[in-house]
Design brief:
The protein is an alpha/beta fold. 40% of the residues lie in helices and 12% in strands. The chain has a single domain, classed as NAD(P)-binding Rossmann-like Domain (Rossmann fold, 3-Layer(aba) Sandwich), CATH 3.40.50. It has an 8-stranded mixed beta sheet with strand order 3-2-1-4-5-6-7-8, sandwiched between helices.
């Protein structure tokens, strides 16, 4: 199975990636679309003609962004819906309010390396928000994605998944010491495993899912990090000879997976800079960990997660 390659690079922007693609009549949801790369993802997709719903916790902030985008001459339209991924009732409400087919679901929203917080159910907040909330959303929107005939799910993961996989014995840090980066890594690995199992289960329904690393972008996602942590990240990035991306560049791979003919019918893979990532090699930056694509762990995580959501 050959890796998928494209002409795009780390410097490509979301607008460049979607150039020449007509999304008229397509309907898209972008979670967390009111800030960071979510805004640029919505801007590029609506600019190509899609009807984009940005699903956000803060409807007022989302409305301001939608008004700005709609007033900028885009050929598509941007709408706003309320969604709190950490709240099962909010996810259910959003799903209940959706009617008609859905062509693309971009699971973009997330939290990163925050202090230990728990959902009302006792779930660790990064796992609850980044993984469980998005899984619940996808489950609820399955029929809408299937109705499109070729539904795509795009899961925004991270290179941080390389720090570790899923601790199935203690996912919610009930017994081990909480480490915000270990928790974040676990949730980002879960994002990749979700796409593996979603594609296996839903490909016959015309639904495929792929994950991506957007790269390093300075956004509100880093709000829980101290200046010292940010400087440390900067030093690691310089050592790895990589550069910080702009939000427009950070959104490029999401838009590529949402629109490119190169990934039509393709799922369960992980992309970096709009190209399928190679297997990770210890001591070398980038790539995708084997455990993040493991089909056994993907099925196990799915079944455990569905059980949690139903409890």
């Amino acid at each position: 199975m050959s890796r998928i390659s494209s002409p795009f690079t780390s410097e490509s922007t979301a607008t460049e990636v979607v150039d020449g693609i007509d999304l008229s009549g397509k309907r898209v949801i972008v979670t967390g679309g009111a800030s960071g790369i979510g805004v640029e993802t919505a801007r590029a997709l609506a600019g190509a003609g899609a009807e984009v719903t940005i699903a956000v916790r803060d409807v007022a902030a989302g409305t301001r962004v939608a008004d700005e985008l709609n007033g900028s001459g885009l050929s598509g339209q941007v709408k706003v819906g309320r969604l709190d991924l950490a709240d099962r009732a909010s996810v259910a409400g959003f799903v209940a309010g959706w009617t008609g087919p859905l062509d693309v679901l971009v699971n973009n929203a997330g939290v990163m390396a925050n202090p230990l917080q728990r959902s009302p159910e006792g779930w660790e907040s990064q796992f609850a928000t980044n993984h469980l909330g998005h899984l619940g959303l996808a489950l609820g929107l399955h029929d809408a994605l299937a109705a499109s005939g070729a539904g795509r799910i795009v899961a925004v993961s991270s290179a941080a998944h390389l720090r570790g996989g899923i601790d199935f014995d203690d996912i919610n840090f009930d017994h081990r010491e909480y480490d915000p980066w270990v928790a974040y890594s676990q949730s980002k690995t879960a994002n990749v495993l979700f796409t593996v199992e979603a594609t296996r289960r839903w490909a016959d329904d015309g639904i495929t899912a792929n994950a991506l690393n957007p790269g390093g972008i300075r956004t509100a996602l880093q709000r829980y990090q101290s200046l010292e942590q940010m400087e440390s990240m900067e030093m690691r990035r310089i050592a790895a000879k990589t550069e910080w991306k702009t939000p427009e560049q950070g959104a490029a791979t999401s838009v590529f997976l949402a629109t490119s003919p190169l990934v039509e019918g393709i799922g369960g893979r992980y992309f970096d800079d709009s190209n399928e990532a190679a297997p990770a090699v210890e001591g070398t930056p980038g790539g995708v960990a084997a455990y993040a694509l493991d089909p056994v762990d993907a099925e196990r995580l799915w079944e455990l997660s569905v059980e949690l959501l139903a409890s």
